[in-house]
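Protocol step 4 of 6: structure prediction from sequence.
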Amino acid sequence: MHGFDLHPHLRQTGYTCAPFSGNMVTSIARLTTVEGFARVTDDLDFAPNNNQSEDIATAVALEHFARYGYDETRLDTIAQESAISKRMIHYYFGDKQGLYVRALQLAIKLLRPLPQAMELDSTVPVDAVVKVVEAIVDQMASHPMAVRMVVLENLFGHANMKNATPLADQSSIVLQLDKILMLGQDSGAFRPGVSALDVYAIISSMSMFRVTNPATFANLYATDLRSEDNTAGMKRLVVDAVLSFLTSNMQPHGAMSYLVQENHADRDSSIYDES
């Protein structure tokens, strides 16, 4: 067993930890940069000395589900690396499915930039959109395991997200993009017929690409998408793609948005049932 040297940010809040296994420390460290662990505390009500084991188990589970997939992830291993019993895993989460959903919620929330990262310090539409795009790209680049888990869920659907109520509130991203688009469209800087969801679809798909395709790009094109230079290059590519899309002279397509949003009202909420 090894002591876990907490980041000063956590020590200042009064957060304390029991000794953890080396593997668990590695798992938590991958998820928890200064901003990352702060995000865990903010999004999971991770208060000092309150449900530490439950939240740590969620973070460890995210690492395992993202790295090994749902079927190959073992509750025994998560319990061991979280320094809690398997019985407590069942107490906190009910079963493996419950733990998976909680880890998925954490993954989604980790991909949402902190509000201050998206605060606008310019009323110039181009400057504003650059800041928000860069904040989203940086957030996804900082949490590759969260990206992996979201991608795996979209491929295999263990949480049945399509038919469930939203797992997290991502409205801050859409609202900020929508505010910028209205500013740009009203001033004539951006073309009409583009919604916040359209823009976010471009940002998220391109940002996730560097996490989902490094092996093929390295093998086929001798390009390491995860290198420092190419991480910065991908960010510039996303920014330029969004700006080009918003400022192009394309003919209007006759709609307010490329994408059509559905209503969540009739979705099944069974994955939240605590049975």
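Step 5 (inspection) to follow. Residues 21 and 189 are 54 Å apart (CA to CA).
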